[in-house]
Amino acid sequence: MKKYVIHCFIICISFSFAQEHSDFIKSLDTTIPINLKEKNVPGIAIAIIEDGQVIYKKGIGFADITAQTKMSSTTGFNIGSISKLFTAWGIMKLVEKDKIGLDIPVEDYLTRWKLPESNFDNSKVTIRGLLSHTAGISVHGYPGFHPDAKLPSLETSLNGDNGPVKADEKVEVVIEPQTKFQYSGGGYTILQLLIEEISGISFETYMQTEVFKPLNMKRTSFTMDKNILKNSAKPYDENGEEVYIEQFTAKAAAGLHTNLEDLIIFAKATLGDNEVLTKETIEEMMTLLPITKSKRGAQGLGYQGYFLGPITAKGHAGSNTGWEAGFMLDVEHNSGIIMLTNGSNGKHVAIATLRQWAKWKMNKLRSKE
């Protein structure tokens, strides 16, 4: 009799959780298409991970409006600044191999380019500072180039010569390093150069060999060739007009192309064992630094922390012309949410969906108290 009662209890609990998941999934299926239409966003690819398992994976809307190609989990996207997470993995792989040190001045490793003289202590610009946006570096972000444009070299870009795409803004120290948080895509361009200098190969090749291939991320690349773009979504601006897929010199900061399936692989690699980085290294990357904390969140090494009530989601958001994306993991509960959109208004859809997810997560936590 006792075993029967316990067995019934387990079944009831399992049914309750399944119903809870089902209600949440139904709410996503109802609200996301409405939000896409209201915000003039063609489509979204989204995945929800709960207790280490994917409970929701879907493409909603269109990857290509003209061709009426439906969105799917294999559709390709540019993910903007989520690229920085992968660059951070590439850097930390070099740290694990004792090729570089986190707290050594980055210029000790650079020969092709040097930081311009400044009124601050350039020797305090360390790799840890660049990863955590506490190195005092300029250039918040980078717009991309037309597909037919000739891209500037890394050194040229660092010197601020980015042609007509962006007003001249060189990468330099603008505040005292290690004193405050200042988001800098320019800092990640320095890290891109660092990877090339230390590895002796191109940034794109290094990332493919040391990160994407070991993780079995077959549709992810910093090289924007025909192969990687053949299943890509088309990007659209705020008015729903198709725009071209931008190219980047600053690939480490904003140039990665991938899909939902590969980002699910990356999420699981972050939450569990993987062939690239140790759990200890990932834990260090996700440790939020006190100097970076604000009411909204904080910064680790590559990973940003987002304070959502009792939940701290760790990951990154991404934004480029025609693309908006979010990659957030609730590491404590082995869960997360990934959202990829092909519209410049996609941020509004992603934020609304993130709030919906966070509310569901908070209700689950309360029910267990």
List the helices and strands and how they pair.
Elements: H1 2-39, E1 43-50, E2 53-64, E3 69-70, E4 76-78, H2 83-96, H3 127-131, H4 154-158, H5 185-199, H6 203-212, H7 226-229, H8 251-254, E5 257-259, H9 260-271, H10 279-286, E6 297-299, E7 304-308, E8 311-320, E9 323-330, E10 335-341, H11 346-368
Antiparallel strand pairs: 1-2, 1-10, 2-3, 4-5, 6-7, 7-8, 8-9, 9-10
What would your notes on this structure say?
The chain has a single domain, classed as 3-Layer(aba) Sandwich (Beta-lactamase). It is built from eleven helices and ten strands. It has helices at residues 2-39, 83-96, 127-131, 154-158, 185-199, 203-212, 226-229, 251-254, 260-271, 279-286, 346-368, and strands at residues 43-50, 53-64, 69-70, 76-78, 257-259, 297-299, 304-308, 311-320, 323-330, 335-341. The strands form two sheets. It has an eight-stranded antiparallel beta sheet with strand order 3-2-1-10-9-8-7-6, sandwiched between helices. Strands 4-5 form a two-stranded antiparallel ribbon. A hairpin with a 2-residue loop joins β7 and β8 (311-320). The two termini are 28 Å apart.
